[in-house]
Amino acid sequence: MAIQRRTLLLAAAGMPLARSWAAPSSFPSRPIRLVISFPPGSTSDMLARHLGEKLSSALGQPVVVESKPGAQGVIAARAVIHAAADGHTLFLGTNSSHAANVYLIRNLGYDPIGDFSPIGQITTNPLLLVVNADRPVNSLGELVSYARAHPGQLNYGTGNSGSLVAAQLLKSQTGIQAQAVNYPGMPQATTDLVAGRLDFMMVDPLVIQPFVASGQVRILGLTSPQRLDAMPKVAPLSELGVPGYRYESWSGLFGPAGLPADVTEKLSAVLAAAVNSNTTKAYFSRLGVIATASDPQHFGQFVREQIVLWRTLSRDAGLAVN
User: Fold this and answer.
1) How confident is the model at residue 104 (pLDDT cuts 50, 70, 90)?
2) CB–CB of 69/75 below 8 Å?
3) Exposed, middle or buried by CB within 10 Å (0-12, 13-18, 19+), for 111?
4) Where does the secretion signal sit in this chain (predicted)?
5) Model pTM?
């Protein structure tokens, strides 16, 4: 169904929209499908498979990760909202699917509040600003100077709303001009960056690490205001000449609207235990993301706040609705 902006804003203000369905007597009774909106090899794919193993061990049923990439998460989200609200179909949602798309996709086809049951947050995800190593750029200042010397000639890749908005914010706050090239996912954009068909981009640390190690790509800075434990020498962009710059993506677990309370509570408890485990924290750190657990109530409120925040982010980044 087409989303009604007024309905969503009322939901973001806290008005309940979820349906009430009867809880099943036993959960889970069969394998669980975990739908993600990014392609195999992406950060979301790797953390979903790690969590799938944790959830499977705790729940006693297999967790099958199903990738449905494209359209900033719209394809995956639409697939989940039509599934039975019994806990056997879950969605690894992100800031793209549950906040940014409200302002970036005209015919969204789902309500990120009313069509989903929040279960818990999973990660906070900073991005890296990187350039092709063949470019004469070794710092943020040099990138800005190079772009100003070649107005409109540089291009950058985007594979999700996070990489798009993070780059747009950099452009708006530094005054540089560059052309966006959109991809179905960050791995594809990374391929073109390494090949020299792109000049720079904002990217997940995991995706780009091998190419940094090989010397094909150079890191210029971090989008979050705090450094990553795995990359302590990489400074935030806010310390490198763009005061106040901040961008962080996030991910969380959702079910279809009307998920029974006992199923939500069971999934939330198992998810929180998995996210808070030392093995998960260490694994997420290697992926370049921060383990961030929360309960359904706080996560639902967080999503509503993110919808409001993304109105400002999309406006400040100068993005038009598609």
Assistant:
1) confident
2) yes
3) buried
4) 1-22
5) 0.77
